[in-house]
Every structure is written in structure tokens, then in C-alpha cells.
């Protein structure tokens, strides 16, 4: 695969973002994927079903089950079966997750600044516009 191939570049950028984020989150015993779930829950009032997490983060059911299980073991969420529909499992942030919310937002903001530091404001805006088009095209 060529280093100037768009797919290769996008994949390589994604891999580097994940490695850096995992390193920044290691002190909280979290990974980038786990932080994405916590962020989604935070944005949705602190609670959602596993199905909602799957759909919104565009990941498979087994992936969500594994991520939720690990962050539950670490005390960041609690989960239970919906008494109205036992096919649904509800996931809720704990106080432990709430206590690190601001720090997680700071880590994400820092990552974004580092990622875009070589671009001007108009270049960042244009890149976002183009990436959004590509994203919508492949959906």
C-alpha cells in the first residue's frame, strides 16, 4: 500500500490518534474506545441502552458488550436489564465516571489541538467539511 493512498493515510492517522489517546487515558485505566462510550453516555444524560450505544458509535453488539463489561468492572458504569424489556440492557455512568468527566474533556480537547496545530483556522474548517462529505458518502 502506498503512503500517499488516502485510505492508508486515514487509517494511519486513526491508529496514531488511538495510540496517543490510550496513552493519555492509561492513568485512569481507560482506553480510547471506553472513553468514547463514557462520552456518549455523558452527552445523553448519563444513561443509554447498549443498543443506543451500538447505533450511535457505529460499533457491533459484541464490541459494546465487551467495552461496557470492562468499564463496569473498573467502576465507571453500572448496568442492568430493562424491567420493561429484558432484551435491553441499560448502562448508566457512576459517580466515579462523573468525577473524571472534565479531565476527559480536557484530554480530548488537547488531542484535537495537537492534531490540528499545523493547519490554519480556514484549513481546519475546510478539512472538516471534506471529511464530512467523505463520511456521508461511505455511509
Q: What is the fold's blueprint, element by element?
A:
Blueprint: H1 6-25, H2 32-43, E1 47-49, H3 50-57, H4 61-73, E2 77-82, E3 85-93, H5 95-99, H6 101-116, H7 121-138
Antiparallel strand pairs: 1-3, 2-3
**What number is the mean pLDDT?**
90
* Adjacency order of strands in the biggest sheet: 1-3-2
Number of domains: 1
Q: Globular, elongated, flat, extended or rod-shaped: what is the shape?
A: globular
Helix content: 55-70%
CATH class: Mainly Alpha
What distance lies between the first and last C-alpha atoms, to the nearest angstrom?
24 Å
Helical stretch count? Answer: 7
What are the secondary-structure elements, in order, as H or E?
HHEHHEEHHH
Number of strands: 3
Could you explain the architecture of this structure?
It is a single chain. By secondary structure, the chain is of the alpha+beta class. The protein has one domain: Arc Repressor Mutant, subunit A, CATH 1.10.10. 66% of the residues lie in helices and 13% in strands. It is built from 7 helices and 3 strands, in the order ααβααββααα. The protein has a 3-stranded antiparallel sheet with strand order 1-3-2. Helix 1 (6-25) packs antiparallel against helix 6 (101-116). It is globular. The relative contact order is 0.11. The mean pLDDT is 90.
Amino acid at each position: 500500500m502506498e503512503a500517499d493512498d488516502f485510505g492508508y493515510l486515514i487509517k494511519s492517522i486513526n491508529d496514531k490518534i488511538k495510540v496517543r489517546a490510550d496513552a493519555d487515558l492509561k492513568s485512569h485505566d481507560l482506553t480510547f474506545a471506553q472513553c468514547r462510550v463514557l462520552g456518549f453516555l455523558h452527552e445523553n444524560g448519563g444513561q443509554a441502552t447498549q443498543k443506543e450505544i451500538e447505533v450511535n458509535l457505529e460499533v457491533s453488539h459484541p464490541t459494546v458488550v465487551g467495552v461496557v463489561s470492562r468499564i463496569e468492572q473498573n467502576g465507571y458504569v453500572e448496568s442492568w436489564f430493562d424491567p420493561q424489556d429484558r432484551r435491553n440492557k441499560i448502562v448508566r455512568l457512576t459517580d466515579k465516571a462523573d468525577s473524571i468527566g472534565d479531565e476527559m474533556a480536557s484530554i480530548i480537547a488537547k488531542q484535537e489541538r495537537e492534531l490540528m496545530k499545523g493547519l490554519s483556522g480556514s484549513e481546519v474548517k475546510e478539512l472538516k467539511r471534506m471529511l464530512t462529505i467523505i463520511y456521508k458518502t461511505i455511509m
